[in-house]
Amino acid sequence: MAKEKIPADLVINWDQTPLHYIPASKWTMEAEGTSKVPIAGGSDKRALTAIFTVTLSGNFLPMQLIYTGKTAQSLPKFSFPDGFSLTQNPSHWSNEDTMELYVEEILAPYIKMKREQLEIPDTPALLIYDAFMAHTTEGIQNKLRELNVRLFSHWTYLSINLLKTTSSADTQNGIQNMLYDLKKKENAAMSS
């Protein structure tokens, strides 16, 4: 960041999360001594996906909300705050198409506006993101590079899921060490 003089307004972190229509949990609260405590909605899996984006300076960008459906008829009919991006797909999960829409409708206009406000048209932005497949496609990464966005992928998603697939502590430690070494090399390459 310091080397390229990237301002806090252009250090951007995005992530996505499912939002369940009916909050579900495996625990609840009830008065002590109650013998039966029902948990409502525990098996309801209906959800939408939201992409949250915040800058190092604390700017919260409009969200993209991805609903389950094949056509725009599946989108809600009420109004959302200005700048929100509503879309749909059969699974409600983010994919390359929804990420492309997000970059075009939310991220690119924000970066352009900030560069104009700060009078720094050639300064790159820095995007911090996880290794979720929709974020790492060649098409999305190329689109971001065209916007002069430096990419920094953190390995949380990848490392957690790799660790879940292994059974022995030795294998898990080996994977953690491998990921740590890779991250160290990536950080060293970015700072040189």
List keywords for this structure.
192 residues, Nucleotidyltransferase, domain 5, alpha/beta, 2 domains, 6 strands, 33% helix
Describe the fold and architecture.
- The N and C termini lie close together (11 Å).
- A hairpin with an 8-residue loop joins strand 2 and strand 3.
- This protein is of the alpha/beta class and 192 residues long.
- The model is unreliable at 156-166 (pLDDT under 50).
- The chain has helices at residues 96-118, 138-146, 156-164, 169-191, and strands at residues 11-20, 47-55, 64-68, 85-89, 125-130, 149-154.
- The protein folds into 2 domains: 1-17 and 45-154, 2-Layer Sandwich (Nucleotidyltransferase, domain 5), CATH 3.30.420; 156-192.
- A 6-stranded mixed sheet has the order 4-3-2-1-5-6.
- The longest helix is centred in the middle third of the chain and has 23 residues, at 96-118.
- Helices cover 33% and strands 21% of the residues.
- Helix 1 (96-118) packs parallel to helix 2.
- It is built from 4 helices and 6 strands, in the order ββββαβαβαα.
Strand and helix layout:
Elements: E1 11-20, E2 47-55, E3 64-68, E4 85-89, H1 96-118, E5 125-130, H2 138-146, E6 149-154, H3 156-164, H4 169-191
Parallel strand pairs: 1-5, 3-4, 5-6
Antiparallel strand pairs: 1-2, 2-3
Helix pairs in contact: 1-2
